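I trust your eye. Have a critical look at both lines of this record:
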Amino acid sequence: MLAPSTTRFAHCRRASVPLDEYNQCRAALPGIRRFALLTGIIAASIAALAAAVPLRAGGEPNATAAIGAVPNATRSFGYLEKICRIGPRPSGSRGMTEQQTLLAEHFGRLGAQVAFQSFDAADPITGDPVRMSNLIVTWHPKTTERVLIACHYDTRPFPDNDRRNPRGIFVGANDGASGVALLMELGNHMPGLPVTRGVDFVFFDGEELVVRSQGRYFLGSDHFAREYRDHPPAYKYVAGVLVDMIGDRDLNLFFEKNSLRLAPGVTRSVWRTANSLGIREFHATARHGINDDHLPLNEIARIPTCDVIDFDYPYWHTTLDVPNRCSGESLSKVGRVLLRWVCEPPGKQVQ
């Protein structure tokens, strides 16, 4: 995501980083190089039909099942550590490929349908095409009224905010892995959850394929939003929640200003759910206005989507964004809110 004052959708252009230095770093990362994903083959080999749990027909959800669904903090943190052990995961890298395989196998085993939405974007330094793939995990695929829960799963190529080592190794424990780990954990609960609508997990590629502020943000969410707008599917997304940087050990989640402006009903419904569960880390006051993947969803796709983000994180875009700065308890608390929210009656999810 961009800092509040940063202009979004900046044009991709050549950075001032020397090309030989950039290429050396690419090799060490290990490599922001092009790769080919055989989307149909992968999806066909690991996807399974979503578990045959009937959706509730718009009435009050099963309160015991919904409120009692508590994500496992230890397992959630284990997922975060496992992702970070892969190393850096910038778009087009071997690390990203390894992560995609991990996620496809994970959700396939849980009974979800898994698909990749692939496209090419320009490398911010060389201009060469980089193959990107949004990952879409579908629960209850036959349901035509749906909600989405999204995160980005790429890491920034370099820790540009690190004053001591701006070309160091960036594993993005909070800024990248936290959202992925949370959705991996939520997947364990989805098959038996009494949801009121179909649910999709969407992992956006290319959220920040940027080097020294050179490049374009939100490539994956922009592509996803335009495809949804220009080629309308047989289903409709009625609401969405984006999670980003939700693993901070000192978690504090305030209303995000753009979310209040673009999706006030969804935003307030999520915080209201947190309040009903006694999750005190959700504060019903506005603090930051963040440019993030929820903007294309709102402005292009017209899917009312809020951003759940803790932007008061001192290790943002530094080499210190590592697992020991994060907490499984933080992931569990956010997960508990989302599991309850997807079980809310439809009217309560958007107002």
Notes: Residues 94-109 form the longest helix (16 residues). The chain is about 35% helix and 20% strand.
